[in-house]
């Protein structure tokens, strides 16, 4: 019976962990839902604003046509009024002339008849008729000509905007990656050649924003495009930043070496330092577990710690295998879609997947031609696939969710050289930090 009770306690503990994990997922979904409701309201307003601008533009064109119509119609009517008045005067003169001729014909005086005849011969009657001659440049009629096909095409071509659906981490990893862009990390005020260590992409105010840590210039930088112009922001730190991770849609956490700090930064038009967390250890990698906890990796001692947002260590994970540490230099971390922690370890040259409780899910330590030399940047997509950079192999490796090697999707032939951080965005792009070149290469790898 004691064994049964012990087993039930284990089952209860497992259920408790699952409940906690699922509750964390639910809270994250609630947070995302709240953001989506706010985003919907803002997007709805943006669509209405775009529509109003288009309507105002059409109204201006309508008023311009109406003003032109009135101007031409008033001119035409004015000309017609002048012609009518002139015509009526001519009619009156003709009538008067005819009456004079009648009087002459009825006169018994031959002289009166002869004088009237001479007057008509001199052209007085024809002169009255000259008023009927049409003047050049007179308006004959005012009409509205409309090309309905052209108007219909213009309306079809009218772009108020597009509904852009973001699918985080959706990649066609079987496709051949194509270089899409190269982002230079050097900005005004840099005193050293930039060395990008880690990168992430965020959608802030409907703008794709690339956030990167620059090791040599002790700063976090962001790059984005607004009004067809490339812009940037730079936040200087007291030490050298290494790993960064997204906390919310516009906040990141960054590990800062040499001074045992984790800083949180708000990503807007300008980068804003929100908080500085002083830690008891020097942390390298960092990734969020829940809205209130982080996982961070340390080299001394080699471990992965679970921290609260004030830097307190809630739990420390150290792994031994046959008496040896599996973790020696855990340089980068990321979270999987199932809530596990991926660790790239530069000391043991492996990738380890851990549960938040410290259990090993898989341990990727290849041999032969694909033996890792210096694994660095690591990220997981929404489909569970894993991308890993190797600093000295100059490659980006694709692993399955269970840690099986698939292929090297990027190599030296693609310009990969001394690669560190890696991430994916919702447009099917892969971003790779090339530390010695001071650039971020962006590759298209989508459906």
Keywords:
26 strands; Neuraminidase; 2 domains; 4 helices; 447 residues
Description:
With 447 residues, this protein is an alpha+beta fold. The protein has 2 domains: 20-129, no CATH class; 178-444, TolB, C-terminal domain (Neuraminidase). It is 30% helix and 36% strand. The protein has 4 helices and 26 strands. The strands form 7 sheets. A 4-stranded antiparallel beta sheet has the order 1-26-25-24, with no helix packed on it. Strand 17 and strand 18 (350-354) form a beta hairpin. The radius of gyration is 41 Å and the shape is elongated. The mean pLDDT is 86.
Bin the strand percentage: 35-45%
| Fraction in helix | 25-40%
Look at the structure and give the mean pLDDT: 86
Cα radius of gyration in angstroms: 41 Å
> Order of strands across the widest beta sheet?
1-26-25-24
For the report, how would you describe the main beta sheet? 4 strands, antiparallel
Strand tally is: 26
What general outline do the C-alpha atoms trace? elongated
CATH class of the largest domain: Mainly Beta
**Intertermini distance:** 57 Å
* Oligomer designation: single chain
Name of the CATH homologous superfamily of the largest domain: TolB, C-terminal domain
Q: How many H/I helices? A: 4
């Amino acid at each position: 019976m004691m064994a049964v009770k012990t087993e039930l306690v284990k089952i209860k503990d497992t259920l408790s962990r699952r409940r906690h994990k699922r509750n964390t997922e639910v809270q994250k979904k609630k947070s995302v839902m709240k953001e989506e409701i706010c985003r919907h309201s803002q997007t709805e307003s943006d669509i209405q604003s775009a529509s109003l601008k288009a309507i105002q533009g059409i109204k201006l064109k309508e008023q311009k046509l109406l003003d032109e119509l009135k101007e031409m119609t008033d001119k035409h009517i004015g000309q017609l009024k002048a012609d009518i008045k002139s015509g009526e005067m001519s009619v009156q003169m003709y009538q008067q002339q005819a009456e004079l001729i009648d009087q002459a014909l009825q006169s018994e005086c031959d002289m009166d008849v002869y004088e009237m005849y001479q007057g008509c011969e001199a052209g007085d009657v024809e002169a009255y008729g000259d008023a009927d001659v049409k003047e050049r440049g007179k308006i004959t009629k005012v009409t509205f000509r409309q090309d309905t096909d052209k108007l219909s095409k213009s309306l079809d071509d009218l772009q108020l905007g597009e509904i852009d659906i973001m699918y985080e981490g959706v990649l066609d990893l079987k496709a051949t990656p194509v270089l899409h862009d190269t982002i230079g990390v050097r900005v005004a005020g840099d005193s050293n050649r930039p060395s990008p260590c880690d990168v992430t992409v965020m959608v802030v105010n409907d703008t794709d924003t690339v956030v990167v840590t620059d090791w040599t210039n002790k700063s976090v930088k962001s790059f984005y495009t607004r009004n067809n112009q490339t812009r940037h922001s730079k936040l200087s730190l007291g030490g050298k930043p290494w790993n960064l991770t997204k906390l919310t849609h516009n906040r990141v956490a960054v590990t800062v070496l040499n001074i045992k700090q984790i800083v949180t930064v708000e990503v807007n038009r300008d980068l804003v330092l929100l908080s500085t967390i002083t830690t008891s250890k020097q942390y390298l990698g960092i990734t969020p577990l829940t809205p209130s906890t982080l996982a961070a990796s340390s080299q001394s001692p080699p471990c992965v710690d679970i921290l609260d947002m004030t830097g307190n260590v809630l739990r420390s994970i150290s792994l031994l295998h046959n008496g040896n540490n599996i973790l020696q230099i855990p340089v980068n971390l990321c979270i999987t879609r199932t809530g596990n922690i991926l660790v790239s370890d530069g000391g043991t040259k492996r990738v380890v997947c851990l549960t938040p409780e410290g259990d090993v899910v898989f341990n990727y330590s290849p041999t032969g031609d694909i033996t890792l030399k210096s694994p660095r940047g690591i990220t997981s997509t929404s489909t569970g696939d894993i991308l890993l950079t190797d600093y000295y192999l100059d490659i980006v490796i694709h692993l399955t969710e269970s840690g099986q090697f698939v292929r090297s999707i990027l190599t030296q032939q693609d310009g990969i050289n001394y690669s560190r951080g890696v991430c994916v965005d919702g447009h099917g792009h892969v971003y790779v930090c090339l530390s010695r070149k001071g650039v971020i290469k962006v590759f298209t790898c989508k459906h």
